[in-house]
Amino acid sequence: xxxxxxxxxxxxxxxxxxxxxxxxxxxxxxxxxxxxxxxxxxxxxxxxxxxxxxxxxxxxxxxxxxxxxxxxxxxxxxxxxxxxxxxxxxxxxxxxxxxxxxxxxxxxxxxxxxxxxxxxxxxxxxxxxxxxxxxxxxxxxxxxxxxxxxxxxxxxxxxxxxxxxxxxxxxxxxxxxxxxxxxxxxxxxxxxxxxxxxxxxxxxxxxxxxxxxxxxxxxxxxxx
Length: 224
Known about the structure:
The chain is mainly alpha-helical.
């Protein structure tokens, strides 16, 4: 009887010392969301640094290019192909026609805004700015804000409108450094349109051209 009681006490002590079970599936689901938060943090980092006084505003373009290069480099290092980033065959005429219609509609809205509101932004030095914006900035923004979010949401099996909203939010975040609420709203709305277009096409080429055209028009009209 004494031995039995001793064994019972030992088992009771072991049961109390046994660590509680962990919810491994819940932890795994949380870690699966890490790329969503990581991309958002990377794109917001230059804007946050500027607003905290840690980075001069004049270095915003350099910081955004560094972040974009890091994001694209990580994708290439992870084995993501250029076709997965949307650089497939560019000669899909339905894509180009659809994107042309979208671009004209956006341009019409922008022209209407100039009639309703006053914008005081000064146009850039075109000779140095235009080649950089068309050939470097627009492609980088489209890959980082359209292609990469699509890769992440597809792997999470959260495509469709979840992707469109996330892509639009990333496009708005990358403009956080300017500290302009109207610009953040406009870029979010533009992100919804271009995100929906990429969801339909999975072709980044027409969107790069559309982005370059709309961005150039925005600078010319003083909207950006």
